[in-house]
Amino acid sequence: VEAVHLIADGKAPRVPQPKEGATYEGIQKKENAEISWDQPAAALHNWIRGHDKVPGAWTTINGQMVTFYGSSLLDASVPAGRELTIKGASRPGLVTKNGLVVYGNDGKMVLVRNLQFQDGKMIPASKYFSADETTALELTEEEKKLAEDIR
Q1: Cα–Cα distance measured from residue 129 to residue 133, given in angstroms and rounded to the nearest whole number
Q2: Cα(31)–Cα(127) distance, rounded to whole angstroms?
Q3: Is residue 19 in some structural domain?
Q4: How many CB atoms lie within 10 A of CB 89?
Q5: Which domain does 121 fall in, by range?
Q6: pLDDT tens-place string over residues 18-77
Q7: Structural domain count, the chain
């Protein structure tokens, strides 16, 4: 109550803020968002979530920068998946049907749902190994006729 009265009377003390550290500019740089793998799963999740969407927490996979989006802590048994070597990680990640599972230094898991490559292409993490595969659309005779009619 006393503080409110001091403000209302115009007598509250004013302490100028220092200029140093007064901006978030340094935090928003991509080079400052690299994932340090020597942390518990909760810290990894918070790092990825904290940099989601800008600038995006990233790591190196197969020699290229890959940005992680959409993380959550995974408190379940280890899911089935295909191993993916991640630079700096103590153990490989797992590409599963739900996304990419990565491990903290405490052995706990984090699930990452989306990945973005250096060229800007974003894919669901579960499709990492099938990202380069393309399937041709095959139409039945009836669908071919319908497509021709539409043309």
Answers
A1: 8
A2: 26
A3: no
A4: 19
A5: 30-132
A6: 887 776 665 577 888 899 999 999 999 999 998 888 888 999 998 899 999 999 999 888
A7: 1
For residue 107, being part of any structural domain is answered with yes
Chain-wide mean pLDDT for the chain? 87
Which two structure tokens, joined as six digits, stand for 55? Answer: 């600038």
Task: For 5-35, write each residue's pLDDT tens digit.
Answer: 999 999 999 888 888 777 666 557 788 889 9
* ω into 29 cis (within 30 of 0): no
Q: What is the DSSP letter of 91?
A: S
Peptide bond into 55 cis (omega under 30): yes
Tokens representing 143 are 């669908």
**71 within domain boundaries:** yes
CATH of the domain at 61: 3.10.25.10
Residue 11 lies in a domain: no
What separation in angstroms does the CA of 4 have from each of 1, 10, 15, 17?
A: 5, 10, 16, 21
Q: Which is it for the CA torsion 108, 71, 91, 106, positive or negative?
A: negative
pTM over 0.85: no
